[in-house]
Design brief:
Length: 142
């Protein structure tokens, strides 16, 4: 069983969200995939779904950096204020077209960011992400 069977995409680019969704659906057909073009709505979804103590799901979040109103850095500041229960259920990956070393360093220095991925998402990269998370938790990928 895939322990990380929930995926959240937050990117203001609808085409990127669609591409990510298609890759995730092909790679993990049973996955629950939510995508948001507004970071605030994605944040609210995370709070609503993952703060429920009776829910035991975990999610991989693919977060773009540059978005209107709330960018990734603002999102991460708000995320830091959430209950530990929620923070432990969400694994955040920056998925950006930015190759700016300052963005990469800032992401690397953030304790909630697992890794910095350059767009586009690939089947190989998402499989590797899930495999590494499972290995870290001593779980099977099956």
């Amino acid at each position: 069983m895939n322990y990380f069977n929930n995926f959240i995409i937050i990117d203001d680019d609808k085409i990127n969200n669609l591409l990510c969704r298609k890759i995730l659906e092909k790679t993990y057909p049973d996955a629950d995939i939510q995508d948001f073009t507004e970071a605030e709505k994605g944040f609210d979804h995370i709070v609503e779904k993952y703060s429920n103590p009776n829910y035991d799901g975990r999610a991989i979040l693919l977060l773009d950096i540059i978005m209107p109103i709330m960018d990734a850095w603002g999102f991460l500041e708000k995320f830091d204020k959430l209950d530990e229960l929620v923070k432990n259920r969400i694994k955040i990956y920056i998925l950006s077209s930015s190759v700016d070393k300052r963005d990469m360093t800032r992401a690397h220095d953030n304790k909630y960011v697992e890794y910095y991925l350059i767009k586009p998402l690939t089947k190989e990269s998402i499989r590797l992400i899930v495999h590494v998370l499972h290995k870290r938790l001593g779980l099977s990928d099956k």
